[in-house]
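Before the break, one more example. Copy the sequence into your notebook; we will annotate it together after we see the structure.
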Amino acid sequence: MSALKIIMYTKPFCGFCAAAKALFREKDVSYTEIDIGRYRFRYN
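Here is what the structure looks like once it is written out:
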């Protein structure tokens, strides 16, 4: 079975994003973070 790859789309000052990232750190889960606030023009 292959491992799941987590891609998390975040925005600055997002409380839900911060909580999810804290949970991932606590559980030692790796993920790729894409900050859509920084790269907003790519996702419109």
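Residues 7-42 form one domain. The mean pLDDT is 87. Try to locate both features in your own notes.
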